[in-house]
């Protein structure tokens, strides 16, 4: 396993040499989910993941088509949206995909320019630049489609000082469970269909000005039964990282195929959120009822010290503690990382979350892929979808 890691070439320093970043992104703004029951989903994300009530839009604020709850935790903003009648087009998305991510919003300095730069390079329009105002100022938003029915919304909020967006009111709640130490979105992964990975890699290069800084082929990401391929795309300042997966042929059905079948198309597979203290975060999430994939076998943990030693890193955490929580460890030249994956957070085996703590490593846990996928396959076998 370790040899595979060594062969991974991080070419970050070579990226964007002399290249002009025509789409400067300040960070992830918000992630919007279309869900069947936003009120209950909001309760779940508060109770289970420690998100805090932030903003609301619904019948009480004059909205008639849909209702949205906005939750925050440190830099992360999640929006949960449900249609209020059968006439809303949001229903079509939920009928086809189930609950899932519709919008990955990106914070920009100039939304009109972001829209012009991307649509002139071939992006399909979702929303032409639109100015929304209230007593707190104005926000400009514009959107383009990425893979499947997923959208990137550009959000310009430099002239706005309200809670979230015009039309929303501050959401005060008497129910405020403690935060779980989730800080920011580290990366968001998309699953696309057979032979579509390179199509979308090129789309992110051409339309968004991203670079492919890390690739994994099916020889690196496989188990006895199934395989996948993955390429990581990053924007100019490295704040936005979007790995893209496609299935690869194996003896049985790849987890990516399972996702595509149940999501009925391409979409967001997982959202990785960063913490500074994964032991504390995962302990809390587990006691809140968050379900994680099964813990890797004993042999996995026996191999960890050797793996870290190979790169001369010292593990600061207690390995027994990590093992008892099912947290996985990976290392590369620059450091190590700690990570764990939840089970899907809806009944269709589609979207899930990753909790990650980086201790210098900039990778994505390639050394854990095999243990992770074997764990996913055990779940697939239970579902009869392997
Ligand atoms: Fe990940």
In short:
This protein has 386 residues and is an alpha+beta fold. Helices cover 26% and strands 33% of the residues.
Q: Keywords for this structure?
A:
binds fe (ii) ion; 33% strand; 2,3-Dihydroxybiphenyl 1,2-Dioxygenase, domain 1; 26% helix; 8-stranded mixed β-sheet; 9-stranded mixed β-sheet; 2 domains; alpha+beta; 386 residues
Give an overview of the whole structure.
The chain has 386 residues and is an alpha+beta fold. The chain has two domains: 2-19 and 180-383, Roll (2,3-Dihydroxybiphenyl 1,2-Dioxygenase, domain 1), CATH 3.10.180; 27-170, 2,3-Dihydroxybiphenyl 1,2-Dioxygenase, domain 1, CATH 3.10.180.10. Helices cover 26% and strands 33% of the residues. The chain contains ten helices and 17 strands. The strands form two sheets. A nine-stranded mixed beta sheet has the order 6-7-8-5-1-4-3-2-9. An eight-stranded mixed beta sheet has the order 11-12-13-10-14-17-16-15. A hairpin with a 6-residue loop joins strand 12 and strand 13. It is globular. Residues 1-18 have low confidence and may be disordered.
């Amino acid at each position: 396993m370790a040899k595979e890691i060594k062969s991974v070439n991080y070419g970050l320093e070579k990226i964007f040499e002399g290249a002009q970043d025509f789409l400067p992104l300040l960070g992830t703004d918000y992630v919007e989910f279309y869900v069947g029951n936003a009120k209950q989903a909001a309760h779940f994300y508060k109770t289970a993941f420690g998100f805090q009530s932030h903003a609301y839009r619904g019948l009480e604020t004059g909205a008639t088509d849909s209702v949205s709850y906005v939750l925050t935790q440190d830099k992360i903003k999640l929006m949960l949206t449900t249609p209020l009648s059968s006439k809303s087009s949001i229903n079509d998305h939920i009928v086809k995909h189930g609950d899932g991510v519709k919008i990955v919003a990106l914070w920009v300095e100039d939304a009109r320019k972001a829209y012009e730069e991307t649509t002139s390079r071939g992006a399909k329009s979702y929303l032409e630049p639109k100015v929304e105002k209230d007593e707190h100022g104005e926000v400009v938003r514009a959107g383009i489609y990425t893979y499947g029915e997923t959208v990137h919304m550009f959000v310009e909020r430099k002239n706005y000082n309200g809670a979230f967006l015009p039309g929303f009111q501050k959401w005060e709640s008497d129910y405020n469970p403690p935060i779980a130490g989730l800080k920011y979105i580290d990366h968001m992964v998309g699953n696309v269909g057979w032979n579509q990975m390179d199509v979308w890699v090129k789309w992110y290069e051409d339309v968004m000005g991203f670079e492919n800084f890390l690739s994994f082929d099916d020889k690196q990401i496989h188990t006895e039964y199934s395989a996948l391929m993955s390429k990581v795309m990053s924007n100019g300042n490295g704040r936005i990282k979007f790995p893209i997966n496609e299935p690869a042929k194996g003896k049985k059905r790849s987890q990516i195929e399972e996702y595509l079948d149940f999501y009925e198309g391409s979409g967001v597979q997982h959202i990785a959120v960063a913490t500074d203290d994964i032991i504390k975060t995962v302990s809390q999430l587990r006691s809140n009822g968050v379900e994680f994939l099964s813990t890797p076998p004993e042999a996995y943990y026996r191999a960890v010290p050797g793996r870290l030693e190979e790169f001369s890193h010292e593990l600061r955490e207690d390995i027994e503690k990590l093992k008892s929580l099912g947290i996985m460890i990976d290392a590369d030249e620059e450091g190590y990382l700690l990570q764990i994956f939840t089970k899907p957070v809806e009944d269709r085996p589609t979207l899930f979350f990753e909790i990650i703590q980086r201790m210098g490593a900039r990778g994505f846990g390639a050394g854990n892929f095999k243990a992770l996928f074997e764990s996913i396959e055990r779940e697939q076998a239970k579902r009869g979808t392997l």
